[in-house]
Amino acid sequence: MKIAVIPGDGIGKEVMEAALHVLKGLELELEFVYADAGDECLERTGTALPDETIEIIGEADATLFGAAGESAADVIVKLRREFDLFANLRPVKSLPGVPCLYPDLDFVIVRENTEDLYVGDEEFT
Which phi and psi angles does 43 have, rounded to 5°? Predict the structure, then answer.
């Protein structure tokens, strides 16, 4: 399985390092292909999301994306539109032994990612 790896900016690099450590420990046949995006990429190349990165993602079976700083909208919104990543799923579940207000909580929040206010496509009449 080919995985595109985009550490991005700030904490994204640290989080990506930890995620890759876990994946490499699984002893699966994974090929990691690194790509660039974000503020540092913008500063170096003049674009926050190079065409090469989009090509790498298009050829991969999965993509891991760390974080983007000020250029986040230029990166994330474009990726969501380019690859039709229309929903962001956020599972929420109470864990046994962890004190909480709702001990039997188990649901998923679905956030739409490619239209309306989230990406600045709103139309006011």
Answer: -65, -40
